[in-house]
Amino acid sequence: MGVITIDRHIIEQQSKIPTTASGQFSWLLCGITLACRMIASHVRHAGLADIVGATGETNIHGEEVQKLDDAANRILQECLGYRGNVGIIASEEDDEPIVIEEGEDGRYVVLFDPLDGSGNIDSAMPVGTIFSVLDRQGGGGALQPGCQQVAAGYVVYGSSTVLAYTTGEGVHMFTLDPSIGAFVLARERVTIPEGKVYSINEAYYRDFPKGYRDWLDWTKGEGYKARFHGALVADFHRLLVDGGVFAYPETGKHPKGKLRLLYEANPVAFLAEQAGGKATDGEVPIMSKRPTALHERTPLLVGHASQVDTVQRFLAT
Ligand code: AFP
């Protein structure tokens, strides 16, 4: 069988689906994986080149823009801009979506958080890229519910660089082999193990809704471990590998949750469901939410189905 690179995997997956077998969709996903390899190289050289630290600007969310945020955003825009089939690009870093191709040729919308957890860069902690792909056929633009995603994935730039993606046929994981510059298949059809691990910024305990506080109190003495990286991609990747649950509930500072529905919660929810898990905002499934604004935020509870159910029982009381 030989080495299965991501490009080969994508093409083989797409050839199984007659409606997307034109190669156009594969060409689009290969643009994303190329961009992520380039971003990985930037991340690895961050301490060597002058690309650590802030640009001095703030983004639409009022957050300080890091130089690597800016570089990652430009790389994705460049790699997707010439695909020919990308109509709209929307980035967590930009105020407005970029319209590349108005006509029918611009069939896909790509939404991404170019460098999730960029506050981790200066301390050499993991960061990531998250993406979500929508189809404009049927009239939708960028504001489509997550259940209409045609692909989603992430890359975590950690002790190794790992990519996971889904097109609705399971979740597949690849490791970047730096010696050949390619993502090589590591695991196919990943499922989330149950795992007694929770990922939540417990420093906000007093600010969480009562159900979350009751659940956190209950976990003590139940054999749980806590893990929190400050980068959703890293926490979600750990969750896919080791199991458990991740939550970022509503808080006083972020009454609607902090995470962005379109760039973070939807792609993570698609991956989680494809890996046998669940994702909810505490009331409704994340992927059923109809977005009303590009940078809309949402509470997020995601993980192994039975772990999510346990938290929800506390939320319901
Ligand atoms: P940045 O990309 O601005 O660093 O934010 C990361 C993030 O959106 C998400 O990846 C983390 O889970 C979350 O913020 C951490 O937020 P707190 O610092 O409030 O715990």
Walk me through this protein's architecture.
With 317 residues, this protein is of the alpha+beta class. The protein has helices spanning 6-15, 24-44, 67-81, 210-219, 232-242, 261-274, 305-316; strands at 54-58, 64-66, 86-91, 98-99, 108-116, 127-135, 149-157, 161-166, 171-177, 182-187, 197-199, 225-226, 245-248, 259-260, 278-280, 297-298, 300-303. Helix 1 (6-15) runs antiparallel to helix 2 and helix 2 (24-44) packs antiparallel against helix 3. The strands form four sheets. An eight-stranded mixed β-sheet has the order 4-3-5-6-7-8-9-10, with helices on both faces. It has a five-stranded mixed β-sheet with strand order 12-11-13-17-15, sandwiched between helices. The chain binds 1,6-di-O-phosphono-alpha-D-fructofuranose. The site of 1,6-di-O-phosphono-alpha-D-fructofuranose (AFP) has 12 residues, from loops. Residues 63, 116-119, 201, 230-232, 248, 258-259 line the site of 1,6-di-O-phosphono-alpha-D-fructofuranose.
Topology (elements, then pairings):
Blueprint lengths: L5 H10 L8 H21 L9 E5 L5 E3 H15 L4 E6 L6 E2 L8 E9 L10 E9 L13 E9 L3 E6 L4 E7 L4 E6 L9 E3 L10 H10 L5 E2 L5 H11 L2 E4 L10 E2 H14 L3 E3 L16 E2 L1 E4 L1 H12 L1
Parallel strand pairs: 3-5, 11-12, 11-13
Antiparallel strand pairs: 1-2, 3-4, 5-6, 6-7, 7-8, 8-9, 9-10, 13-17, 14-16, 15-17
Helix pairs in contact: 1-2, 2-3, 4-7
Notable traits:
5-stranded mixed β-sheet; alpha+beta; 8-stranded mixed β-sheet; 17 strands; 317 residues
What's the short version?
The protein has 317 residues and is α+β, with helices and mostly antiparallel strands.
